[in-house]
Amino acid sequence: MKKTITLTCTVSLVIPAMLTACSGQGATGAQGDASSDKPTEISIFANQQGAQAVDSSNELLQAIEQKTNTKLNITWVPFNSINEKTKVALASGDLSDLTFVSNVYDSQVVQMAASGAFWDITPYIKDYKNLSALPKEIWDNAKIQGKNYGIPRPRPLEGSWGVHVRKDWLDKLGLKVPETMDEIYAVAKAFTEKDPDGNGKADSFGLTGHVDPDGMGAFGWVENVFTGSVGKWKLKDGQLTPVLFDPGQKQALEWLKKAYDEKVLAPDFAVMKSTQAREMYMANKAGVFGSALNPQWLYTDALRKIDPKADSYPLTYVMGPEGKFAGKDSGVFGMYVIPKTVPEAKLKKILAFVDQGNGEEISTITQFGLADKHYTVKDGFKVATEQAKTDNIPDITNNLLQIFQMYDKYQRAYYNGIPKEFYDRNKKIVDDRAAFSKPDPGYGLISQTALTVGPDLYKKVQDMKIKVILGKETMAAWDEYIAKLKTDPQFQKIIQETNEAYKAK
């Protein structure tokens, strides 16, 4: 159920063109009315990522409104129903001033953008300091037919891809940090067979994770390393080819099948939920886990309640066929569209509001809470206080960050409460990966055939992968399956349309 929250405040925001401070009397606030300094009313349709919608009395929200001179009407929509409710809102045309869409390239969004339902903000971006400072890759990855019809929710380009290994278990068994898939397998096998937790029981597995209905989920990194690409496509000689056809795809299945056969892989991985796989890793029952970089401290903190020396160590890279491999993110996690029914004058105020929300002052509040109350600064590093836990700041900021967030290349290096030494180590991983990480070459490309038949097709592919790993189908059967797929008319049409979209991007 939607929950609408109305907030008020009174302090003006200075527009980027007026960088000097100004007082309330006679001032022209970017958000407020020039004559009365009245707060600008802005409605927002936002993703509720935290457990509870942020209450209107929340002091963080009130501080944001005060600093931006706005009156916000926020409709919080739980993340598990956001896509469905967004489609309903788009179809009805009853849109908030800022309406969140999780998929920039959803066919409904693309069609509405092309028909003029949203503001093309491309000409305005240059006028806003923080928005125009976003990396070009982010704006490019949020374009529809060469134009920006929404404000991307910026995310770091590094850190969403990865695999964690128990560093303390490596040290205990006298093993080095693995770099190749063979070395990772050897480590995982040792974790399974050599009692790394020292409890005298054969109750740990080398590798755990979950799978999705249409993909390998937490085991996607295995396929990525073997194929040398993230996503469903690989770029070869200017053409996109399905990674399913790459020799590395079969090698990935063989690697996972071996892990399953030798009981290195958790036996119930195929039916595990993502939360169950994570809990298994955090319960000291597995040593290798596919995960983004930022939960590093979440895992380690939980594990240290069991073993004070625990260390969930994110690998900087894994050696693949073409050298060091790590995946690069798009930098875009959905976007906020502004309906064309909003007058241009208000559009500019909304952009100024978002620009300020992407700045350091507001983003600090949404990420850490209030200074001296929810965090202190030690050696230039923000340290969460006990009051932050009492006030449930991690959950509150999880919601607020869905609206207000400054681009920070090191965002995925941080987790609330992380010690500085782990944060610095994670930052180095981010810096090192930037030199060789690879983006998804098929990101944002639309095939109408894929939209209609793709979901069922990829579910069947995933079902076949699992059968092969579990031994219910042979590798020869997989080869036959791929041979048929190469001649399938619908899949061939998906390949054709995706390449046409790639050339037109």
Q: How are the secondary structure elements laid out?
A:
Elements: E1 3-6, E2 40-48, H1 59-68, E3 70-78, H2 82-92, E4 98-101, H3 107-114, H4 129-132, H5 136-141, E5 151-154, E6 163-166, H6 167-173, H7 181-193, E7 205-208, H8 220-227, E8 233-236, E9 239-242, H9 247-261, H10 274-282, E10 286-290, H11 296-303, E11 312-314, E12 318-320, E13 323-325, E14 332-337, H12 344-357, H13 360-368, E15 375-378, E16 381-384, H14 386-390, H15 393-400, H16 420-433, H17 448-470, H18 475-486, H19 489-504
Parallel strand pairs: 2-3, 2-4, 7-10
Antiparallel strand pairs: 1-3, 4-14, 5-14, 6-10, 6-11, 8-9, 12-13, 15-16
Which residue ranges are poorly predicted, with pLDDT under 50 across at least 5 consecutive positions? 1-35
What share of residues are in beta strands?
A: 5-15%
Question: What's the arrangement of strands in the largest beta sheet?
Answer: 1-3-2-4-14-5
Number of helices: 19
Oligomer: single chain
Average of pLDDT: 91
Rg from C-alpha positions? 24 Å
Helix content estimate = 25-40%
Main sheet attributes: strand count, strand direction, barrel closure:
6 strands, mixed
Distance between the termini: 37 Å
Secondary-structure-derived class: alpha+beta
Please tell me what the overall shape is: globular
Extended strand count: 16
